[in-house]
Amino acid sequence: MLGHRDGHAFVARDDGAADIYLPPNEARAVLHKDRVKVCIVRNDRKGRPEGRVVEIMERSSQPIIGRLLQESGVWLVAPEDKRYGQDVLIPKGATSVARVGQVVVVELVEPPALFGQPVGRTKEVLGEVDDPGMEIEIAVRKYSVPHQFSEACVAMARALPDKVRGVDHVGRIDLTDIALVTIDGEDARDFDDAVYCEPATTGRGKSALKGWRLLVAIADVSHYVETGSAIDVDAYDRATSVYFPRKVIPMLPEKLSNGLCSLNPEVERLCMVCDMWVSEDGVVSAYQFYPALMWSHARFTYTEVAAILGNTRGPEALKRKDRVSDLLHLHGVYQALLSQRQKRGAVDFETTETQIVCDDHGRIEKIVPRTRNVAHRLIEEAMLAANVCSAHFIAQNKHPGLYRVHEGPTAEKIAILRNYLKQVGISMGVSDTPSPGEFQAIAEATKDRPDAQQIHSMLLRSMQQALYTPVNKGHFGLAFDAYTHFTSPIRRYPDLLVHRVIKAILARTRYQLPVLPTPGEAHAKLARRLEKGIAAKVQSPDTKPGKTSAEGLGWQAAGLHCSANERRADEASRDVEAWLKCKYMKEHLGEEYSGLVTAATSFGIFVTLDEMYVEGLVHITELGGEYFRFDEMRQELRGERTGIRYALGTRVRIQVSRVDLDGRKIDFRLMQDTAPLSQRVSGDKTQPRDIAERSRSLEVSELEIATKAVLLRPAKGKRETAKAPKVKKSGPKTGPISQKVARKRR
Q1: C-beta of residue 341 within 8 angstroms of C-beta of residue 228
Q2: Which of 293, 321, 454, 701 has a Cα at 20 to 30 A from 418?
Q3: Alpha helix locations (H) across 159-241?
């Protein structure tokens, strides 16, 4: 069950059908995230199925976080997550050492009833609401992010050596004389990839082909994290590192993530190497994997590498003169790989990425765009090449593993996209089974249009969500037949599994997934799918067609778990950033700013402020005293009397009118004296063409599909509560499209 701050709720069905609406009287006895059985009693006036609770099958074990209050002598906790809908009563003596106003974690002792509030006891005191970093403490508990390592994990990490031992050299290729270097951001603390490139020739005589030998060395985490060990159990539970402003919750203990497994400069480190031969036209014609011993010869930053490549005689190049030729070779292979990317037709949109800069007290100082330069792209292409080789190696050897899969758009989304392209006058069509090249061709052909941002957003909305699965269905966005994640085992568990599988293949053995003591929610979801007979058939190479092996089910559960925890990490990061932005904008109430419309909905428009990169809602009641019609195909609001249109890219001027910290919402008021700015995007010649540089990370090269496609897909059930009685909606009845485009963590 998914609660709502207004008292009603929605039931997300196991079979994936439309959510069922629960009115407030039915939602009274249940809480957010409870598992319930309901029966549909009617369809409401909006056509949504409305239900009645038949049985509460399972109570959520997640603790509730909120502020401790006292009203008329009664102690209660007001949940920070308003989806719980009810305050929790705290009996006398159950408040622990908490004081009024402090943020506490509550454990329920009595669930809610139709005529009674839930009762709980204080389990943990987090501190004052204004304490630095409190928003992070709340988020990790709100989203159940594991943030403390088990005692067994800590003890095992403590027993690990401080440096590479002589015994660890056995069975490894010595690459310490190869000038491998790391290239990361200025604030990076863990370095899990190093690169090296040199010109190389294959063949002899007239048949000789020129190209490059490209080495991608990745930290060998699997050497220290044994399958099923205490560290492995904790790493699987987390599945990914979680990145917040000023803080990281790592997947591995710091001794590994920042020490023994980090490819720090001028120290010996163990690594797994993808050794590739790349032709002049960017084709990886040969590759091999092997464990190695390396020595990082330099720690570069993206800014430094970009400066050197931009001026090989400049001051930065003079400081690194021994490495300039190596960087030029890397740039050469990058250009070759990039040309092959363009031939494949991989989708490549420009998106706005921002970085929150905080002061020592955790408050926002400024919000700045992340700038992507040639060094970011260089590393990205090298990592993509290694990931593709990994997927090919696993598939070729018919060993089960996890792939990073991104399927093509569904028929429904293709139909919506076709109608939209026709509406905005784009003659280029999309076939029934489109290729990535078709999407890229449209993006390239429209990049200079004033409404390019709107068009690219609609292209993104038509795509599906990327996920981890043992069934290889290719990667649509990157135009790869097989793709996986190999390059970040320090911060992603799927990468660690890929390393283990590759090692098993090299050793001519078979990797077996560990039997973990706490399988988690993903395994429970898989079990429910199997009960209903809708689980995908996952087969091992030794299983007869039509049969699902236990091993295959284990890999499917691991994929579900890693995908779900990736979403969890993104949600927690977005929640913290939203809180910080609300806190920041609360200091700017009443001030006026200019911005661009980034989404139009039936209840208003969302505007992103210039330079500040903060998004807020202009409710439809603030648009003027007339009726507005929402055109879902064009994604715009149009005034029936004046014809004023608000669509993606429309430039407006607003005033900050309200900030809701608890709801993570910012409301704007449209300044009516700026009516000439409020025109359809095609008439706005002041809009910048470029949507800004993307941030570094391999996920960004995947178009942030993992986040954006799910956030921008047609919704199953309408959950917005803003009333818009003046709206008349036109276009096909496909359900509202969500408006948020969230940032992907590094």
Answers
A1: no
A2: 701
A3: 230-238
Token digits for 98?
Answer: 């908490």
For the structural domain made of 64-129, what CATH number should be given? 2.40.50.700
How far apart, in Å, are the Cα atoms of 139 and each of 63, 249, 300, 740?
12, 12, 33, 19
- According to DSSP H, which parts of 34-87 are helical? none
Q: What pLDDT is recorded for position 688?
A: 31
Task: Give the burial class of 124: count Cβ atoms within 10 A of its Cβ; 0-12 exposed, 13-18 middle, 19 or more buried.
Answer: middle
Band of residue 673 on the pLDDT scale cut at 50, 70, 90 = low
| Average predicted confidence (pLDDT) for the chain | 84
What is the rounded CA–CA span in Å between residue 713 and residue 738?
Answer: 7
Q: Which residues pair with 273 in a beta bridge?
A: 217, 290
d(CA 452, CA 446) in angstroms, rounded, equals 6
d(CA 28, CA 79): 15
* Spatial CA neighbour of 592 closest among 675, 644, 657: 657
Q: How many CB atoms lie within 10 A of CB 55?
A: 10
Please tell me the distance from the alpha carbon of residue 263 to that of residue 231, in angstroms, as a whole number: 20
* Token code pair at residue 81: 């997550």
If we measure between CA atoms, which residue out of 330, 214, 220, 324 comes closest to residue 268? 220
Angle at 707 between CA 701 and CA 708, to 5 degrees: 85
Give the tokens for residue 746: 């590094």
Closest CA to 734 of 461, 451, 363: 461
Quick one: pLDDT band at residue 517, thresholds 50, 70, 90? low
Tell me if 541 sits within 8 A of 400, measured CB to CB.
yes
Range scoring the smallest mean pLDDT among 34-43, 449-458, 596-605: 449-458
The amino acid at 299: R
Domain covering 580-730 assigned CATH 2.40.50.140 in the classification: yes
Which strand ranges, in their side-by-side order, compose the sheet holding 35-43?
A: 2-3, 9-11, 20-22, 49-58, 35-43
For residues 457-475, average pLDDT = 89
Give me the amino acid identity at 503.
Answer: K
Q: Are 602 and 729 in contact (CB under 8 A)?
A: yes
Cα separations in angstroms, 366 against 1, 352, 592, 597, 683: 38, 16, 17, 21, 32
The total of other beta-carbon atoms located within 10 Å of residue 93's CB is 8
- Averaged pLDDT for residues 535-563: 70
Closest CA relative to residue 168, chosen from 275, 256, 265, 268: 268
**Same fold yes or no, 64-129 and 580-730:** yes
Residue 273 pLDDT grade (very low, low, confident, very high; cuts 50, 70, 90): very high
Residue-wise burial string across 713-731, b where 16 or more C-beta atoms lie within 10 A, e elsewhere? bbeebbeeeeebeebeeeb
The alpha-helical segments, DSSP class H, found in 462-549 are 493-506, 521-532
Question: In 441-561, where do the E strands start and end?
Answer: 467-469
Most confident of 10-19, 51-60, 327-336: 327-336
* d(C-alpha 344, C-alpha 283), whole Å: 11
372 close to 696: Cβ distance less than 8 angstroms: yes
Asked if 623 contacts 651 with a C-beta cutoff of 8 angstroms, the reply is no
Per DSSP, the chain holds a count of helices (H) and strands (E) of 17, 32
Between CA 666 and CA 577 the distance in angstroms is 13
Domain residue limits, the chain: 2-58, 64-129, 151-392, 403-569, 580-730
pTM exceeding the 0.90 threshold for the entire prediction: no
> Per-residue confidence at 677, pLDDT binned at 50, 70, 90?
very low
The C-alpha atoms of residue 276 and residue 279 are separated, in whole angstroms, by 10
Taking the C-alpha atoms of residue 500 and residue 502, their distance in angstroms, rounded to an integer, is 5
pLDDT, position 266: 95
Percent of the chain with pLDDT over 90: 53
Q: How would you classify the pairing of strands 173-174 and 284-295?
A: parallel
